[in-house]
Amino acid sequence: MSRLVPRQTPPPQIRPSPEPNPLAGDSRTPLERFRTKPKKPLSVTDLVSPAWCELQYFYTLSKFGRKPRTQAMKMGSKIHQALEDEIHTTIPVETVSKEDRFGLKLWNTIQGLRCLRQTGLTRELEIWGIVGGQVVNGVIDELSFACPDPDMEEKLELARAQQSGGTLPLGQLSIEQAFGKAKGIKLDLPDISVSSWLEETKRDRHVYIADVKTRGGRLLPKGASLRPTWMQLMLYRKLLESLFLNTVDAETIFARYGLAPLKSFSEAFILGGGVLGDADSDFDPENPYSILQANELISHPNLSSLWALMISEYQQTIPTISDILRAEFRYAKTGEVIGNELIIYNADTIDAYVEREMEWWKGSREAKGVEIEEAFKCRICDFAEECTWRKTKIEEATEKSRLRKGAREKSAI
């Protein structure tokens, strides 16, 4: 499948804030300061990075506007690009207007969904949604039809069936009955296997979401270090489901980006300078979809119609979205897989998390630092010396220690 990119797009530059103290004397909310027009809308990264430390992310945005690209991030980008190149061929294409450039994003999402439908795998799928009244954008590293853990899937399917009000298929065992039978307990029930019903329910394939993380070492993260990754995967699933169900208001998306949804794409973009193929041109063996693609863009000549085509591709491609979410960890120096971690999607968990983070973004509360149990994060934080939260926690700990010492001395008298 082809992945199109605009020709001669300059790389984004990050400039430190010219203010000597960017945190002082600004009463605007984080949303007003960092993610209001003409600045870009919220990203999935904006919502999940605070799961590591809200205050650290606030300091980062205040000084740079976004996370500066470290050497580790650059190595990670190379690995992501190599994985994408395994299934997508990148082709430059002419874009004239901002509608062309956003149309290119929609077109690549359409091609990514078709790749998933035809091959069972796609990577770098861009998505959009609305969370807490705000437009949110993200890119899912991987979607596939390959189940990462069939045993977990089986238990999940059975648990769902049991929790659906007891309306199991005729003769189907409950979870307790199924596990009881596996242990050899005699049950007065029809002899129907769990696997036979599971095969019935799997006529519609699940789509599985995965996120690829690179690590400087070969050890897997654990505990609090995994929290941002879990929130990221859950948010991806939440946004993907909204697109699949067609509950995302396209007009709100277009308005946030300042786009004219009925404005026609440029001829240069539709024909792609020969990349997409002229509708009257000969068949291009390097791009077998070229004639079809050109015709499709001619028949979907604006953002509104191309968005509708994208939604139809979602509904054709994704029968159901699995609740099993996978984080794949790779060694940054070589790209080799060092392990996977799985989590089950929980709508209540991500809804509560997002609601709390939106309170901070909208200024309803101040940013918080880490609790004492996660003080290890401060050792690798660039803002540790200027962090007011850290100083306050140190003072609180010192005072508690002084009070405990005083109490011991009094009891010893």
What is the typical, i.e. mean, pLDDT? 80
Number of domains: 3
Q: What is the CA-atom radius of gyration, in angstroms?
A: 25 Å
Main structural class: alpha/beta
Region (Disordered): 1-31
Organism: Paraconiothyrium brasiliense
Biased composition (Pro residues): 8-21
Pfam family, one: Exo5
Description:
- The protein is α/β, with parallel strands linked by helices.
- It has helices spanning 30-34, 44-48, 54-64, 71-85, 98-119, 150-163, 175-182, 194-201, 227-244, 250-256, 267-271, 290-299, 303-317, 347-361, 388-412, and strands spanning 2-6, 42-43, 89-93, 121-131, 134-144, 206-215, 320-331, 337-344.
- The chain has 3 domains: 2-9 and 26-145 and 205-368, no CATH class; 157-199, no CATH class; 374-412.
- The protein is 44% helix and 15% strand.
- The model is unreliable at 14-20, 166-203 and 273-286 (pLDDT under 50).
- The longest helix is centred in the C-terminal third of the chain and has 25 residues, at 388-412.
- The strands form 2 sheets. Strands 2, 4, 5, 6, 7 and 8 form a 6-stranded mixed sheet that branches. Strands 1-3 form a two-stranded parallel ribbon.
- The radius of gyration is 25 Å and the shape is globular.
